[in-house]
Amino acid sequence: MRICTIASRFSRIALRFWKLICDSGDRVAIFISRCDFVGHFGPLGQGIANAVGLALGEKHLAARFNKPDNEIVDHYTYCILGDGCQMEGISNEACSLAGHWGLGKLIAFYDDNHISIDGDTEIAFTENVDTRFEGLGWHVIWVKNGNTGYDEIRAAIKEAKAVNDKPTLIKVRSFPYILFGNDNHHWLWVSEQGKLVQRTWKCMGAKEVDATRKNLGWPYEPFHVPEDVKGHWSHHVPQGAALEAEWNAKFAEYEQKYKEEAAELKSIITGELSAGWEKTLPTYTPDSPADATRNLSQQNLNALVKVLPGLLGGSADLASSNMTLLKMYGDFQKDTPEERNVRFGVREHGMGAICNGIALHSPGFVPYCATFFVFTDYMRAAIRISALCEAGVIYVMTHDSIGLGEDGPTHQPIEHLASFRAMPNLLMLRPADGNETAGAYMVAVLNRKRPSILALSRQKLPNLPGTSIEGVEKIAAKAADELKKEGKTVRVVSFVSWELFEEQSDAYKESVLPSFVTARVSIEAASTFGWQKIVGSKGKAIGIDRFGASAPAGKIYKEFGLTPEAVVAAAKELF
Amino acid sequence: MRICTIASRFSRIALRFWKLICDSGDRVAIFISRCDFVGHFGPLGQGIANAVGLALGEKHLAARFNKPDNEIVDHYTYCILGDGCQMEGISNEACSLAGHWGLGKLIAFYDDNHISIDGDTEIAFTENVDTRFEGLGWHVIWVKNGNTGYDEIRAAIKEAKAVNDKPTLIKVRSFPYILFGNDNHHWLWVSEQGKLVQRTWKCMGAKEVDATRKNLGWPYEPFHVPEDVKGHWSHHVPQGAALEAEWNAKFAEYEQKYKEEAAELKSIITGELSAGWEKTLPTYTPDSPADATRNLSQQNLNALVKVLPGLLGGSADLASSNMTLLKMYGDFQKDTPEERNVRFGVREHGMGAICNGIALHSPGFVPYCATFFVFTDYMRAAIRISALCEAGVIYVMTHDSIGLGEDGPTHQPIEHLASFRAMPNLLMLRPADGNETAGAYMVAVLNRKRPSILALSRQKLPNLPGTSIEGVEKIAAKAADELKKEGKTVRVVSFVSWELFEEQSDAYKESVLPSFVTARVSIEAASTFGWQKIVGSKGKAIGIDRFGASAPAGKIYKEFGLTPEAVVAAAKELF
């Protein structure tokens, strides 16, 4: 479709693989390494899981859009991973799914160089990776001379491409001559090919750099690219342009012949939404039946899927609790990749990172994923990468408070809202009823460069007067009625999103929270941490600053003091 | 050593295994299931990782304390895990380490019942678990009839015990007849042994319950334990007492013959610290050289290991960056399990959960583990379990801010301090110099039922006047000097721990932060989220509410406005 390359900081290693892949004549290569999408060292294991998402994106689009006479979607996803990535649990989660889905166009190079920061991998990593990957349903190839065995690597790439029903791991045994410039990293120095002469943990001095250059036969100045190297690489520039032109011509043909499909595919490639898409979102009135926001969420997802060709996603084995099934579609599986319900299994971390890969594959993909809100703890590193690399993943997080029944404190989020409100470039949305849920989805879909977490309830909530999809301000409580009966003037404000509120004008903020009103009470079934910003020095924050407990929702709310009576009492103290 | 049982909610399954283990005549069994330590459904995968920690604890103590004539430490660790646990990456991390360490006394039953919440495991989990575990270095046994093949299970337990150099996975193929009472869970109903007759996702009604009881030949009232069942189980009560008496006699012998070792072992078993242990902590004066708190941390760890027989731990492949090596000791490895430096590899999540297992093995174990602070994101679920099940793990988290060099925003914590300050039952400690680091360790060691996170710097920090191990109040800034020069009265307060401050008396809090002083400025190289509680409505919080960037520490601090000048300017606005 297009060429997407992400350079690796393991430059020597990555460049070698990259060159050989380019040489292999791939029309299009998507390429990731253990580096992340912002150009720095990435958190280990994220890259391979992103790659699984990219390969899923290709397989899905190919199944939906390819025609016998025009295979418009057709590219490989390459990934380089190291020992550290292999040790991280996220890579096992994602690779288990890649095997399950039979992602035949995913080719991963495992740079098996036996080196970790703390020393030889022997000290902590002696498992048989080949056997594990065979268990995960991968095709495994072993390249024994990763340093100079170019023909071996070329043959491995060829073999990998011939295997269509399984992803391939090319385990490349290499001897490291990596140099790190950072003063807290180790460096390695080999005098001869494959023979480790010296190893130390200190920074390399000028003397050692010189000796290493000599050993490697590299007589050039720093940052100098010799002409022959430049020549070898630069022919890929016109080659790439030619490949792009070829693809564009192919797409023009496709567009003529398959108008409808072409428009849909184009929307996924460009990220342009169809005009008026948001009108499909359901609306509610105070007469609409009370419902849990997780159910309202499902109504929104099933409405949106009709107008968003790139919407797809699923849950980490809680689809029927998170209410995330798209009823018009079947499961994305090895033999039904055109479907849109993704079954992630109990693999939250892998799920988040795979969704990052999907989101980054094409701007019009709108991936969503789901679990209980408390289990964002399992996938937090992937969520942070969504925020950092601007992947607009929608996190559908249900069971958003202690009101979830008897599963108890391991399943009850307390600090999670606060913890995400503190995370940059992420929208933490907690809608209170139908219209706010629809509004939250509108915001989430529009924010393609900012991930959203929707915290949704398991309990039924009434539809409130004054809420709207567009509005932010809303009224939402019972306690106010009590106080009003006593002649107090009370305003109830529902804070769907702290981030969106912060982004409003000062005048708007003042209109919602007038500064002369210092008698403020916040109530949230979660940690009070952070609420002092809203209630001010003279206000009071009601919440839960301990772990939850195992009890029915009504009982636990009462036990923890989350009742209209408690709010009334707190408010009266402030008047 | 002692019997520690944690009942499973998969009662039928767990009880069956448990009974057979008891029957096998184990002197001591430590038993975990996929449930956590507080009696509820645990987050999946934590249990098996805890079990690895428990088995590590046994292997370590056995190596240190057993004598040819008295093997005082000698027990198996049993664990039951399900498909969900197998899918979670944490279990792969922990099981990879168990294989690496050759934890021969770890025996895990994998209840391979092909059922997940969303349906048959076929939809998301088709990997070959046997092969994967063989790759991880485990001995794998397959019990084909897990429902009634008791002899098969007995034989498997016997075989597992005969394998001393590898952990064993007993894959038990079972057909489920699990009943869940919660209305959002599925239930399964089999009419005959092994034959699935009906499956639905709704709650079971009285009629179905009756039919199931009939099918299973269970004529009793709810909660009734028939006499023969009671008889079968109750003989374990006197048996257990006899085993305990036997062990006590053995220990009495041990104590007489190996006085010194017995005292040490006793301290680990009881958790009683030797009097005056805290005197070993280093102290500093303003004349002590400026140093990074990560280095000061290492001085503390190496001092503590001399007086805490249960101190052991390590890093997730960053020992030389986190400064966590205990210099008097070698590596805990398969053949050197008596050593105390644990090499976790790049497996943060498994590391945290393994440390929970170590902590819960014996109250005198003081496990610590380390990585960069930002990578707490990878292990947050395990840290939450530390807090929830009161395991006093010490989390040594270095590189605590944007001041860590060129690794960039993926390695720079922003929201992490706030996110942990919001977590219940956890001490978030951020010492500012030598004495505060020692004080933080004192607090962490004393809090055996509350985990601690120490956020430590990579940069050198000066030792400040007025700090002490015992004190909380301290002075810590440059900006204050500027303001004082201009005749302002300024107090600089270092907030080592918000939680400990909260626990102080109102009078103390007022003495540190007098309420009449409303001109307050907070400064922290992290999210400002939550600081409004401290600075009040009229104060100002200086921090970083965006992701970091790649630059040397000095440059990035300046760029982000974290300078004495910025603090002076903010303060002046408030006067």
UniProtKB/TrEMBL annotation, chains A, B:
Residue ranges annotated for the Transketolase-like pyrimidine-binding domain, each copy included: 291-463
Keyword RNA-binding applies: no
One Pfam assignment: Transketolase_N
Keywords: Magnesium, Metal-binding, Thiamine pyrophosphate, Transferase
Molecular function via GO: metal ion binding; transketolase activity
GO CC field: chloroplast stroma; cytosol
Cofactor(s) this protein cannot do without: thiamine diphosphate; Co(2+); Mg(2+)
Reactions it catalyzes: D-sedoheptulose 7-phosphate + D-glyceraldehyde 3-phosphate = aldehydo-D-ribose 5-phosphate + D-xylulose 5-phosphate
InterPro entries linked to this entry: THDP-binding (IPR029061), Transketo_C/PFOR_II (IPR009014), Transketolase-like_C_2 (IPR055152), Transketolase-like_Pyr-bd (IPR005475), Transketolase_BS (IPR020826), Transketolase_fam (IPR033247), Transketolase_N (IPR005474)
GO process terms (BP): pentose-phosphate shunt
Signal peptide start and end residues: none
EC number(s) given by UniProt: 2.2.1.1
PANTHER family recorded: TRANSKETOLASE (PTHR43522), TRANSKETOLASE, CHLOROPLASTIC (PTHR43522:SF17)
Function text: Catalyzes the reversible transfer of a two-carbon ketol group from fructose-6-phosphate or sedoheptulose-7-phosphate to glyceraldehyde-3-phosphate to yield xylulose-5-phosphate and erythrose-4-phosphate or ribose-5-phosphate, respectively. Could act as a stress sensor involved in adaptation process.
Assigned protein family: Belongs to the transketolase family.
Subunit structure comment from the entry: Homodimer.
Protein name: transketolase
Species for this entry: Hibiscus syriacus (Rose of Sharon)
